[in-house]
Amino acid sequence: MRMVFAGTPEFAARSLEALIAAGHDVVAVLTQPDRPGGRGFKVLPSPVKRVALAAHVPVYQPETLKSAEALALIQGFAAEVMVVSAYGQLLPGEILRATPRGAINIHASLLPRWRGAAPIQRALQAGDAVTGISIMQMDPGLDTGPVLLERPCPILALDTCHTLHDRLADLGARTIIEALEGIRSGQLKPVPQPATGVTYAHKITKAEALLDWTKTAEQLARDVRAFNPSPVSRTFLHGELIKVWQARAVPELPGAAPGTVLVANDDGVDVACGEGRLALHMLQRAGGKPMTAGEFIKGFPVMLGEQMGV
Questions:
Q1: Which domains does the chain have, with CATH numbers?
Q2: Per residue of the chain (310 residues), what is the pLDDT tens digit?
Q3: If we measure between CA atoms, which residue out of 235, 251, 239 comes closest to residue 283?
Q4: Which residues share a beta bridge with 241?
Q5: What is the rounded CA–CA span in Å between residue 310 and residue 307?
Q6: From CA 169, how far away is CA 16, in angstroms rounded?
């Protein structure tokens, strides 16, 4: 199928690779402009751009699609369909109608649950047992279009955003290939989303990553997994910012004020929460590297009774 692909991060790059490998005629790729990233804040191409260039597919990086020039660009490709995955901005109605089959979106949740920017993180935070991929016919709303195909994905007990993202990216790549075949054969028809069960996955902010010790240990453990690898959960000790990469909820009553250090040994650093205690297993100082709790306390002494978060 002759198509334009629009996407930016690694999640989208997996689908672009699959579409090219499956023999689809990807005539152009749209991706966000190169941005500074990494420790050196060097200007880097997006993962989608790297895949496109390696496959010799023309790449376009308009600052906005809300212009007559952007519309003319897409119409000029004479594509049958536009496939969109985590592009990075809402597409105006004119762009959605720029190809005969419209725009098809690869979304990382089972719609209408977790519409929006951060469906993987929000599913982990909520303690969902399952998520998945929805292939959706896009309309001008925020992930409100009718669904063509859904495939579930279980959320495992130790999943982080990183591990769940990778499984969903691979599932999304397989599902878009299946969906396009169903569209071409006429077997798939768009089904309107139900009015019930709608939730919104609002964009993650760095402020959310600060651990609130008055929450339950179970909720904080979910937050730690949801914010790994970015923006990474964090707290303060001795006035220094400490990142928490791995943690486990311990349901027993802490018997101390939230934020109080209860245990500090090679097995972990346990901290009292509003309910239960959180065992911190992988920690990182500013400018350092992630390390086990045992390694961490050898270079940064943690005393029983100390208060996290200050």
A1: 2-201 (3.40.50.170), 206-299 (3.10.25.10)
A2: 999 999 999 999 999 999 999 999 999 999 999 987 766 678 889 999 999 999 999 999 999 999 999 999 999 999 999 999 999 988 999 999 999 999 999 999 999 999 999 999 999 999 999 999 999 999 999 999 999 999 999 999 999 999 999 999 999 999 999 999 999 999 999 999 999 999 999 999 999 999 999 999 999 999 999 999 999 999 999 999 999 999 999 988 768 999 999 999 988 899 999 999 999 999 999 889 999 999 999 999 999 999 998 7
A3: 235
A4: 236
A5: 7
A6: 11
Cα 204 to chain center, whole Å?
9
Cα separations (Å) of 153 from 2, 111, 150, 234, 298? 29, 13, 10, 28, 40
Closest CA to 237 of 219, 201, 264, 197: 264
Pairing of the two strands 233-237 and 240-250: antiparallel
Q: Are 138 and 127 in contact (CB under 8 A)?
A: no
